[in-house]
Write a structure and sequence with these properties.
alpha/beta; Transcription Regulator spoIIAA; 19 helices; single chain; 3 domains; 8-stranded mixed β-sheet; about 500 residues; Rossmann fold; N-(1-d-carboxylethyl)-l-norvaline Dehydrogenase, domain 2; 7-stranded mixed β-sheet
Length: about 500
């Protein structure tokens, strides 16, 4: 059936709707687009033509390809024109009643063989399908913005969705050059659910006065390896939009503390500090450009003792290409000038120092320390200026900037990554999706450098468990409770 889909109907001529039109038209489909405001739909069609012209000028596509896409997309005046469609994708405002009304009307028009889908990003597919006489025919096709560029499509299965339609949708997405993942209809589906801690934990750390927004953003982007820090990303999305999604997921997850919205974010919405669109959010924007920068440490000290473990670890790999005469390969710890360097495990550096009596420098997590542009550190009380300068100097010498954070449990990236891994694990444990799909979703839906569960395997599941259990012990907060999926890996 997927190979037989030649005519696609799209309801809604907004950014996402027209993006879906372009995807279908670029893959040899005729596209009919309907919007309740016909003049808006025609303006959107003209805007599509203009965007494609720019892509031709930039050498991204040929003039012939652009012409074919524009000609394949036709604005129609009524849903009745969708009688000929093999697939319909609804992409209107996120309002349950409006979506239900559309599909009730659509069901009376199209063939019983027409595939019906919704691009909703937050509303239950099961709830929308309840309006249909045949709820088994509706599924979610959740594209990501911009739809022509982003590879991921979440295929959402409602409680009554027929598996045959899910398989047809997977084949179609692959035919369109997309990467499909399947999720059961639950709040946030995969990406919007699993990604919540990226914002929530950053906001919590900021409200705790643990670090500034720019410090956290720099750790997460330049250090951990995310494409953009959480505060800069919230400013880009719109703090009001991000806050609304947080509220929706929290409410629909029956006030689970893991999804608790930020009081600070709510205050910013009240103050109209919404990010780039209002000129100020977590950052001021001078002419649309963020001007704030992080404060790095620097040292020209001459380092001396340098011990690296016999067996390569996630952290010691950072020093593997560094040639140094006094380096020794021995033991199971990195030691620089009498100070041990350890990956953060959810304890403070002071706690670890008190436990084993050795000066301690904790290193924040990174997806790949070899690629990291900066390294975030905390120091225990016994780390003197001599030790600190030599540690900073050595890390500077291998071409990386250094940030120093307060000695708080889990640091910044470690705390955030542990929460993201826990959320991904819990999504699998609770049957939202399978392990392969959650990793694909986060890599291609929000551009994470690696899948969260595969990274947890690389890091070690016990280390992940230790981080979360130490955080829960420190804060006494159920948001850090360990997913049974992780317990099953130990």
């Amino acid at each position: 059936m997927a190979d037989e889909i030649k005519i696609v109907g799209v309801i809604g001529a907004g950014t996402m709707g027209m993006g879906i039109c372009e995807v279908a038209a670029a893959n040899d489909c005729r596209v009919l687009v309907y919007d309740i405001d016909e003049s808006f739909a025609r303006k959107s069609h003209d805007a599509l033509s203009s965007r494609l012209k720019k892509r031709v000028i930039n050498g991204k596509i040929t003039q012939e390809q652009a012409d074919n896409i524009v000609q394949a997309v036709k604005v129609v005046k009524s849903l009745d024109d969708f009688l000929v469609c093999d697939l319909v994708v609804e992409a209107v405002i996120e309002n349950l009643e409006i979506k239900k009304q559309i599909f009730q009307q659509l069901e009376s028009i199209v063939s019983e063989n027409t595939l019906l889908s919704t691009n909703t990003s937050s509303i239950s597919v099961t709830a929308i399908a309840a309006a249909l006489q045949a709820p088994s025919r509706l599924f979610g096709l959740h594209f990501f913005n911009p739809a022509p560029v982003m590879k991921l499509v979440e295929i959402i299965k409602g409680l009554k969705t027929d598996d045959v339609h899910v398989q047809q949708a997977k084949k179609l997405c692959k035919r369109w050059g997309k990467i499909p993942v399947v999720a059961n209809s639950t709040p946030g589906f995969i990406v919007n659910r699993v990604a919540r801690p990226y914002y929530g934990e950053a906001l919590k750390m900021y409200q705790e006065q643990m670090a500034s927004a720019i410090h956290i953003d720099t750790v997460m982007s330049k250090g951990a390896g995310f494409r953009m820090g959480p505060f800069e990303l919230m400013d880009l999305i719109g703090i009001d939009v991000n806050f609304a999604v947080s509220q929706t997921v929290f409410r629909e997850m029956y006030n689970d503390p893991r999804y608790k919205p930020s009081l600070l974010q709510g205050e910013m919405v009240h103050a109209n500090l919404l990010g780039r669109k209002t000129g100020i959010g977590f950052y001021p924007y001078d002419g649309g450009v963020k001007t704030t920068k992080a404060d790095y440490l620097h040292s020209d000290a001459k380092f001396d003792q340098f011990i690296v473990p016999d067996d390569m670890t996630l952290l010691s790999r950072m020093f593997s290409e560094f040639e140094y005469d006094q380096r020794k390969w021995q033991g199971d710890k990195i030691i620089i000038s009498g100070c041990q360097l350890l990956l953060s495990n959810g304890l403070t550096a002071k706690q670890i120092e008190q436990s084993d009596g050795m000066p301690t420098c904790l290193v924040d997590l990174s997806f790949d320390f070899m690629k990291a542009e900066c390294v975030n550190l905390v120091f225990s009380p016994k780390v003197d200026v001599f030790m600190k300068n030599r540690i900073v100097a050595l890390i500077n010498h291998i071409g990386k900037d250094v940030l120093e954070s307060q000695d708080q449990p889990g640091m910044i990236a470690t705390r955030t990554l542990a929460m993201l891994i826990n959320e991904a694990a819990d999504a699998v444990f609770n049957g939202v999706c399978d392990a392969d799909d959650v990793d694909l979703a986060m890599k291609y839906g929000v551009n994470y450098p690696k899948g969260l569960l595969s990274f947890a395997t690389e890091l070690g599941w016990q280390h992940v468990a230790n981080i979360l259990e130490n955080l829960q012990c420190w804060f006494g907060d159920d948001r850090y409770r360990l997913s049974p999926y992780i317990r099953n890996q130990l």
